[in-house]
Amino acid sequence: MSALILDGRSVTKKSEEDLRSRVARIKELSNGAVPILATILVGNDPSSATYVKMKANACTRVGMDSLKIEMSEETTTEELLAEIEKLNANPNIHGILLQHPVPPQINERQCFDSIDLSKDVDGVTCWGFGRMAMNEASYGSATPKGIIRILEAYDIPLEGKHAVVVGRSPILGKPMAMMLLNKNCTVTICHSKTTGLDKIIKNADILVGAVGKPEFIKAEWIKDDAVVIDAGYHEGGVGDIELKPLVNRVKAYTPVPGGVGPMTINTLIYQTVEACELKLAQ
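^ thats the sequence. predicted structure below, dont judge the formating
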């Protein structure tokens, strides 16, 4: 059989068309004001700089504005907290993104958790995670929320399915598991230290690879009719899952690149527009 390709680029394109209309409507209702995403880049990591630029470009495509704040490699936790507090207090800012990772002298968790919940459009705060896990209104972590959106866009059945998430990071694996649980999946969380990982994966109806190691999950571990979501990206254009042998035998899969990646950025923009709409409605 030929597997269904879960094309994040095409879903993103359709989403951006919708977001352009929503931003235009916001302009009408607010005398020209638009949603604004503030991005904070601390240090000189070239990959982080590229990601921030991609997010700014996505804002431009839908008619939003972005505010880029660059801070030095020597920035302290206190200095970063002060910058976040300014953005929290600015009524014109609707979303705040602190680009990960930050330099090692900074308490990243403290800084994430200082972001106002109403502006936590990247879904990084403990409070936001707790609300999401309890199925309350919140902004989900951008990558797992993007994965849920792509599954919904392709009408992939979730209820009652056995989902296996390989990875336990606070902004990917853990929230992914909670989101799938909220969709009535039966969820198993695994990681690189799990004993008998191949046997657990063999029972997965839905597999999410989020372990951060290139092709760590082998094709032979995956059953024929599984839905395969690869949330990894590594040098050479490979993900966390050995995908090539799977493309003609699984039910559906996300390509690498072009699957999960575009949905992550789009979800960040989507949630910023939503935050602006909610503020206008108050």
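Residues 142-261 form a domain with the Rossmann fold fold (CATH 3.40.50.720).
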